[in-house]
């Protein structure tokens, strides 16, 4: 669990490390260091840097799945932003069940910005932070899961990008 320094040094990051790096950079530019945690039914959570620009919400994110990258700041609520991730999140097992927003400034230990050591306590804080329930209808989940499975069967080495709202992806 690397901080900004480790990400720059290694030139790679998973989603939480990328969110921490974005928070470190953008906090300097006046954005509060907010992390949006998407909790999945199958425990493959996804974390993003949450920001607000001109009253609208957006996200900066890193993922191996193209549909889970960042979003332009066009969403009027956090719930609407989470909704934009709901369908691309669906795969054979994953589906968003809840989300939470953690302000990193509330953590007792501020070394999440620049420590040279692992900062697993950030992930622990996200795990223990209250989350708001989120759900899609079973019919929607079934439809998009079937599309995902059919796509992966036909193209096992590709990522689907046929989701709605793609024009707002970063």
Structural class: alpha+beta
Task: Supply Rg.
Answer: 16 Å
Individual helix count: 5
Largest beta-sheet details: 6 strands, antiparallel
- Tell me the strand order in the biggest sheet: 4-3-2-1-5-6
SSE string, helices as H and strands as E: HHEEEEHEHEH
Unreliable spans: none
Helix content: 25-40%
Amino- and carboxy-terminal Cα gap: 24 Å
Average pLDDT level: 90
The count of strands amounts to: 6
Give an overview in words:
The longest helix is centred in the last third of the chain and has 17 residues, at 138-154. The chain has one domain. It has a six-stranded antiparallel sheet with strand order 4-3-2-1-5-6. Strand 1 (34-40) and strand 2 (46-53) form a beta hairpin. It is globular, with a radius of gyration of 16 Å. The model has no long low-confidence stretch (mean pLDDT 90). It is 35% helix and 21% strand. The chain has helices at residues 4-10, 15-28, 78-89, 120-128, 138-154; strands at residues 34-40, 46-53, 56-60, 71-75, 96-103, 132-133. The two termini are 24 Å apart. With 170 residues, it is of the alpha+beta class.
In short:
Helices cover 35% and strands 21% of the residues. The chain has five helices and six strands; from the N terminus they run H-H-E-E-E-E-H-E-H-E-H.
